[in-house]
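If you are new to this repository, start here. Below is one unmodified record pulled from the training split, so you can see the exact layout before writing a loader.
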Amino acid sequence: VNGGETATRVIQIAASGVELNGFTVTGGTAGEDIVRGDGLDSAKLQGLLLRYNIIYSANLGDEGIQLVLTDGAVIEYNYAHNLFGVAFNICKSSNGVIRYNEAHDLATPDAGIYCYLTTNTDIIGILVYDVDRGDNEHGNGIQMGDTDDGIMSTGGEIRDNIVHNIAQDGINVEEMIGVTVQNNTVYAADSWDGAIYIRNVQ
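And here is the target side for that same chain:
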């Protein structure tokens, strides 16, 4: 599925129970997500499953997959590369999981894998590398929580991930309650904070 660099979002998901399986998706425009799912505050999208997809940007584009206001979403076994934004993102959601994906060559000020304003969301078994906005100063490998919103995310775990060649933190956890970080491998993270940086957590 090719948006030809003219589609603001190449694939938009607006219903529960959708499975996106085995697609190659490209051709987004700057500042937009290539694949996006949007629920409502009053009705989160339930049970989304995105697996075995290849997401990349030939020229422009923003985040690979972003899911907003969902419950029980699963992003697994996907391959994302050459994006001008986050590869896989879940936000304002609960009980989601991002697992067993690979992401690399990401030019983002945020992170390769990014979850915020979430409850009980897991990031497991990810391989993420070559994250750098191009200035050697921005781009974390994996990030959970967000200092900009002033709202704590709760629960979840970050485990069994491999993160390397990152412009900033390999793993960044901020504004979180009850998150577990364990059994991750991080190297070549050119950060002034640390390979693993944990701040303002309970």
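Two things worth knowing about this chain: The longest strand covers residues 171-177. Residues 169 and 194 are 6 Å apart (CA to CA).
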